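User: Hi! I'm working on a homework problem where we have to compare a predicted structure to a textbook description. Could you give me the structure for the chain below?
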Amino acid sequence: MKKFFLALGLLLTVYCSPLTVEAHDIPPEILQYLIENPDASEAEFEAWLETQELANQYQIWNEEEQFESFNLPTELVQFLIDNPEANEPEILEFIQATPDLADAGWESVVQKLLAGETDPGSFTINDLALLNSLSQEFDYRLDDAQFSWWQFAVNYVRLGVEHILEGIDHVLFVMVLVLLLPPWKRVLAMVTTFTIAHTVTLLLGGTNILTLSAGIVEPLIALSIAYIAFTSVFLRQKFPWLESQNNRLLTIFVFGLFHGLGFAGVFAEVAPDATRLLPSLLFFNVGVEIGQLIILALWMPVLWLVHRLKWDKFVIPMFAALVSILALSWVWERLFF
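Assistant: Happy to help. Predicted structure tokens:
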């Protein structure tokens, strides 16, 4: 079959557990085989899968009508192989920069696929996600309507947890908030203030009521880390007002607003359709809070041990200085690169 591998690569699907929608990337060797064997028949491909002990992991949709409309061009398949971490904007940028793909209207096709606007009976975004090895963020919005509310909630809560735990800037901000091991009541006040602030802007940003360029938000998030770390450790004795309860909470609230816009920027990439937008935002935010509690649960005992061993006079300033330098380097990078 002409260009059989193109259709076949799209029409591979992996069995997933019923409660998750995690990515299951098609192995690079399969994609490479399809590139090198453009005229391979279905039987030849299945035989090759057997030799690779992969046959039981994949189901091939072999109805003729499903091969008709979505045959990815060779250059796009090769791009996906060469760029396994490419996200939606990068895919679209590649299509726009390739005249043959742009002229054939592949940009609109891919946008529809990523938006889940295809006929579920023929081709779904799941196939593109598998083929492209998209990061898990995109998988959470795949066919959301087919999941129960429980499954839907689990997916977005987990996405929120993963985002804050994988985002080193958010992790460091939470860590420097409690760097001096303040009393638990003050910890509770600071964490609650941060939660309220980023929840407000996450909801506003996630619903497109408030938007702000990432070129502004991301440098300010990095600056918030440096500011909290440096003022908490090095300036608190010279300028006691910096550490006053009201001033510190106000500072955390302001910075928290920008962190919420950062969360909203990530959420925008995985937002479901309008019918489930608000619930998904709330579930995502719950995940962020769970991730925040995980950070504190792991970090606070370490700080307690450092203070208990009386290493705090050396360890804490060194940590604060390193974090401040790192965060300021992010500010520079995000502003000018």
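For your comparison, note the following. Residues 1-25, 58-70, 118-144 have pLDDT under 50 and may be disordered. DSSP finds 16 helices and two strands in the chain. Good luck with the assignment!
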